[in-house]
Write a structure and sequence with these properties.
This protein is of the alpha+beta class. It has helices spanning 4-9, 57-73, and strands spanning 17-20, 24-28, 36-42, 80-83, 99-103. The chain has one domain (4-103): HIT family, subunit A, CATH 3.30.428. It is built from two helices and five strands. Bound molecules: adenosine monophosphate and zinc ion (ZN). The site of adenosine monophosphate has 12 residues, from loops.
Length: 112
């Protein structure tokens, strides 16, 4: 298995876990870009967002809802940002889909 996030799911690489159920895992980003910066991933390997299929719609909603709920739990009720980078031109570096959640600092748009 050469996917970093699959190895985190399998427990082969440690992560600071925030939440886990049968479908998703959330853990703190190792290189935080804000005081709150965590990732929500599906446990099943999906390489990038453009590989989602119709049957993955409930999973995609579950990822988004998990992101929202954890953001609030971590004190981001005044605002936060979610980001999903898709493939090389979208800035994706780990090829297992993940939703970034950033909060607890003022964020701007466009991000630059
Ligand atoms: P992206 O550039 O959207 O693919 O984001 C990949 C993210 O994964 C980056 O923000 C990295 O800091 C983060 N990351 C890489 N390795 C780890 C790890 N072992 N544990 C937690 N986060 C990681
Ligand atoms: Zn994977």
């Amino acid at each position: 298995m050469d996917c970093l996030f699959c190895r985190i799911v399998a427990g082969e690489i440690p992560a600071r876990k925030l939440y886990e159920d049968d479908q998703v895992l959330a853990f703190h980003d190792i290189g935080p870009q804000a005081p709150v910066h965590f990732l929500v991933i599906p446990k099943r390997h999906i390489a990038s967002l453009d590989e989602l299929s119709e049957s993955d719609r409930p999973l995609a909603g579950h990822i988004l809802y998990t992101a929202q709920r954890l953001a609030i739990e971590l004190g981001c009720e005044e605002g936060f940002r979610v980001v999903m980078n898709c493939k090389d031109l979208g800035g994706q570096t780990v090829h297992h889909i993940h939703m970034h959640v950033l909060g607890q600092r003022q964020l701007h748009w466009p991000p630059g």
